[in-house]
Amino acid sequence: MSPGRAAYPSGGDHPRLARRLGLGDAVVIGLGSMIGAGVFAAFTPAAAAAGSGLLVGLALAAAVAWANATSSAQLAAQFPESGGTYVYGRECLGESWGFAAGWAFVVGKTASCAAMAITAATYALGGEARAAQVVGLAVVGALTVVLTRGITKTARLARVLLTVTLACLLVTVLVIAAFTREWAAPWAGVGDATAYGILQSAGLLFFAFAGYARIATLGEEVRAPTVTIPRAITRALGLVIALYAVLALLLLATIGADGIAASALPLLTAAQAADVSWAGVFVRVGATVAALGALLGLLSGVGRTVLAMARRGDLPRLLAAVDPGSKVPAVAQLWVAGAVAVLVLLTDLRHAIGFSSFGVLLYYAIANASAWTQTGEHRRWPHWVQAAGLVGCLVLAATLPIGSVVVGALVVGAGVFGRVWLQRRGVPRS
C-alpha cells in the first residue's frame, strides 16, 4: 500500500465528480489556461530580467515545463483523481509531501488567478487604471458563477474564449508582420545577458507554461483518464511552446527586449511601432479574452485541489462538498474566489507572477520526485527526465526576484509547519 492510500480510499467515502470531459475538452482547458498567462502577462517582467536573453529564458522555461509535464502525465495516468500533485505526493512520498505540494499549489495559483484578473482588467481598460481592481473583482465573480454551474459549461466557455483569443492573435501577428518596415535580429545582444537574469526570466516565464496542470487537477472529470490525461497534457504544452516562440520572435524583432520590458502591453506597443495602431482593438480583445480563459482554468484547478485537500482533512471538510446537481465543488470554488478577490485588491502584476511561480515550481519539484518513484507499467519516461525537472524547478525557484522567494518561502513554510504543529498537539483534522 502506498504512503497516502490509507488516508483516503478511492472508493466512495465522498461524493465523486462526474467524468464528462473528452480529449478535446481537456486540451482546450489546458490551452486556455496557458495562453492568457504568456505574452499578455509574463513577457514584460521576463524581458526586464533577461534583456536580449529572453529567448534563452523562454527555451529554459519550456524545457523545465516539458519535463514537469511528462511527470504529471505519468502520475495522472496512475492516479486519475482531482488534486494533481497533492494526490501524487501523498501516494508516492507520504502525507507531508502531498500537503506541501497542495499548499504550494493553492497559494501559488491563487496568486496566478489574481494576476490574470488584473491582466484582463488592464487590457479591457486600455492600461493601468484605478477601475482595474473593480473590473478584476467583477471578472472573478462572473467566472465563479460559471464554474459552479458545471464542468461541461466551463469547457464550452473555455472553447469559445480560446477561439476568440487565437483569432485575435492571428490577425495581430499577420498585421504587424505585414506593416513592419524595420526588423531587428531577435537574438541580437544575447551575449550581454547575465546567467542570473536569464534564469530569473525563465522562472517568471514558467508562470506562462504552468496551465497544463489544470488538466491533471481535473483528472476525476475526464473520460478514459489513463489515456486522455497524458495525451492532453503533452499536446497542449507542445502547441503553446510553438505559439510563445513565434510571439517572442515577433516582439524581439519589432520592439526589442527594451521595448517589451518597458510596456505593460507589449503587443499593443508592437502594433504602434508598425504604424497600425488600429490593430490595437484586436490586441485588447484577444488579451482580455485570453486572460479570462486562463483565469477560468486556474480557478477550476485551484478549486479541485482544495476539494482534494478537504477530503483528506488537510483543509476544512466543509470545502469537500460537491453540489448534487452540477457535480462541482461549489463551496471550494466560492472560497477560492474570495481569496483571489483579496489579492486583486492588495497586489500588483509583477509580484503576483513572481509569488505564483515560486509556489508552482515547488509544486512541480514534488511532482518530479513523485514520478521518480514510479515503476513497472506506470513508468513512461526515463528517470533522468524527472531528475532534470526536479533540479530545474529548484534552480528557477531560487533565482526568482528575492521578494518573491522570501514571501513564497514564508507562506509555504507557515502552512507546512502549521500542519505539523497541529498534528503534534493532537488537533483533529476536520
From TrEMBL:
InterPro entries listed in its UniProt record: AA/rel_permease1, APC_superfamily
Primary localisation category: membrane
Keyword Cell membrane among UniProt keywords: yes
Pfam families: AA_permease_2
Single GO MF descriptor: transmembrane transporter activity
GO annotations of cellular component type: plasma membrane
Membrane disposition: Multi-pass membrane protein
Cellular localization per UniProt: Cell membrane
Residues spanning the membrane: 21-43, 49-69, 100-125, 131-148, 160-181, 193-215, 236-261, 281-307, 328-346, 352-369, 405-422
Gene3D superfamilies: Amino acid/polyamine transporter I (1.20.1740.10)
UniProt keyword terms in alphabetical order: Cell membrane, Membrane, Transmembrane, Transmembrane helix
This protein's name: APC family permease
